TrEMBL record:
Organism listed in the record: Rothia koreensis
Annotated transmembrane regions: none
Protein name per UniProt: GerMN domain-containing protein
Domain GerMN: 215-306
Lineage: Bacteria, Bacillati, Actinomycetota, Actinomycetes, Micrococcales
Region (Disordered): 46-73
Superkingdom per UniProt: Bacteria
Length: 570
């Protein structure tokens, strides 16, 4: 295929009779170290290292307004009082007129400044401005956006005399804090939504001030639905239009009382109520103060445990320890230093390269060494082969038995191994047009794709929601969230539902990156060709031109094996 032309659908080379493939399950944003910020599109999603998160926020004791303070001092004092998060920002409200103090909403927006605020306030009869260089902005839903270069914003305030003292009569909702204050006052919370089958919980990272009302904040935004990049890819057990009964979620003895109302929840059947309770419990456990939920609807307590075969959605499912690889031109499984040939597969048309398998170890997919052929084999005799009109990535198998691959010219392909058609489906992803896809991996919850695009110093790592039709067939990839790596990655793999490992095959650098914001550098590995991850950082393998290594802490230990192209199930 000529560069610059729209990729054509790959031509089918050969296929055998299709039989149903046994069902398997699989599952499925990112953390950056202190001072480092992840990305969303041209900016980053931010999160502090988990090791720094605490259950109790440090105490800040800002001062209220002094008698006779000038408009400049009032505005400056108000901005500093944004650190007083307890008692509903009561100190900050002292700087406002009575009317504004009753309507001002501090949690509508939090601006994290990169340096001191520049205030221009003359006399109280004229508006004052505060110029802020914003490095991160948290909106009212707790969604964080951070910028590579500070975003200069101006805040306008108006003043009024109250009993002879200047007070602020108009100012936008929200607070302004320094980076250090933000990292002390705020922490990440994980909301959970679900794949359409309610088999897997899909994490959605949000940021709130770590105070006693955090449970209320978390439930409030949970009712509003997922972050934009997950819209259309995940579902909520809680019906649209559901509201909190009393606008608060009290927590007592590690149990949260959640009272809901709304037409959809009033008419909910028992299965929906069970799923709602699970969703609330899984989400509220991220507050560190909640272990259980007492759910009520229209002030009537909801009894759970009444659906006999109910199974809660799986959070961060694990993959089996055996890996698939290639030895002497054949597919083998590898575990504990031992390899075993995969039996029951139809012979290969090409010598396998970069294989993958499902969690049941019944379905296998691979390319050839030139990356222009896809082969699929199943232990039940299923066989698919397709020659491609462009180079493709190593394949990825999702929980629904779809085989995926990204094309070198920006196309995304998916093969339905359970259907009658042998032809691949081209998955819509307009934002990928013209981009070189180097790595493509579907999350274990089958709801998100981890994609590396570009080359050299222009490479980027993305996560994009997968939108499917009512039968589970992939239709498109949503607008992406950029992952906040601090190096130029060429490959990436999932190691949990909220963490990935990335590698640069050009300079040998490797990082683990968490969706809540934390990056960890490990020792470089020269001549690195391939990386794969299982369950956490303890199960990361890398391949060089001649050897295979396992990650031990931040260093690499050579593995004595001749098996090449090792890959964990997906």
């Amino acid at each position: 295929m000529k560069s610059g032309n729209r990729p054509q659908a790959p031509r089918r080379r050969r296929s055998s009779a299709v039989r149903a493939v046994a069902c398997a399950t699989a599952v499925g944003l990112l953390v950056v170290g202190c001072g480092r910020i992840p990305t969303s599109g041209p900016v980053y999603h931010y999160n502090e290292p988990d090791s720094q998160a605490s259950s109790t926020a440090p105490a800040f004791n800002p001062s209220g307004p002094e008698k006779g303070a000038s408009p400049n001092e009032i505005l400056s004092g108000f901005l500093q009082a944004g650190t007083g998060v307890e008692n509903d920002y009561s100190v900050a409200r002292e700087y406002l007129t009575t009317e504004l103090a009753g309507t001002w909403k501090p949690e509508d927006r939090t601006l994290v400044r990169s340096n001191d605020v520049s205030i221009d306030a003359k006399d109280g009869n004229q508006p004052a401005t505060a110029e802020v260089n914003v490095s991160t902005s948290i909106d009212g839903r707790g969604i964080a956006t951070s910028y590579r270069n500070p975003d200069k914003q101006k805040i306008t305030a108006k003043f009024q005399q109250v009993n002879g003292q200047w007070r602020i009569s108009e100012i936008p909702n929200g607070t302004i804090v320094s980076r250090q204050e933000f990292e002390q006052l705020f922490r990440s919370f994980t909301l959970y939504f679900y794949d359409p089958t309610f088999s897997y919980a899909v994490p959605d990272i949000r940021w709130f001030a770590n105070r006693s009302t955090a449970a209320t904040s978390v439930v409030r935004v949970l009712l509003q639905g997922p972050a934009p990049y997950l819209e259309g890819s995940v579902v909520s057990a809680i019906p649209a239009g559901t509201n909190l009964m009393r606008q608060s979620v009290p927590v007592s003895n590690s149990s949260a009382e959640v009272g809901l109302s709304g037409e959809g929840v009033t008419d909910a059947n028992q299965l929906t109520l069970e799923r709602m309770n699970t969703q609330l419990e899984q989400t509220l456990k991220s507050t560190s103060s909640v272990d259980s939920v007492r759910l009520s609807v229209d002030d009537k307590a909801v009894e759970t445990g009444k659906v006999a075969d109910y199974r809660p959605a799986s959070v961060n499912p694990q993959v089996p320890s055996p890996q698939v690889g290639v030895l002497d031109g054949q597919l083998v499984t590898y575990a504990d230093g031992q390899s075993r040939k995969v039996s029951g597969l139809e012979s290969n048309d090409v010598e396998p390269s970069m294989p993958t398998m499902d969690t049941d170890r019944r379905l296998y997919a691979y390319t050839n060494s030139d990356r222009n052929h896809l082969g699929v084999r199943s232990t039940n005799g299923k066989s698919m082969d397709a020659d491609m009109d462009e180079n493709i990535t190593a394949p990825s198998i999702d929980a629904n038995k779809w085989v995926w691959a990204g094309g070198s010219e920006g196309s995304v392909y998916a093969w339905n191994t359970r259907g009658d058609s042998q032809d691949p489906q081209t998955v819509g992803a307009d934002w990928l047009k013209g981009q070189h896809i180097q790595s493509f991996k579907v999350s274990r919850d089958a709801s998100r794709a981890l994609i590396v695009t570009g080359e050299g110093n222009d490479s980027r790592v993305w996560i994009s929601g997968i939108k499917r039709d009512d039968q589970g067939a992939p239709e498109s990839l949503g607008e992406p969230l950029r992952v906040g790596t601090t190096h130029n990655a060429t490959q990436a793999a999932w190691i949990s539902d909220t963490e990935v490992v990335t590698a640069n095959t050009q300079d040998g650098s490797v990082q683990t990156v968490s969706l809540s914001g934390d990056t960890h550098d490990v020792n470089g590995l020269s001549d690195i060709e391939h990386i794969t991850g299982g369950n956490g950082r303890e199960s990361v393998y890398a391949q060089t031109g001649g050897d295979t290594y396992i990650l031990t802490g931040t260093s690499w230990t050579r593995v004595d094996t001749k098996v090449r192209d090792l890959s964990y199930a997906e």
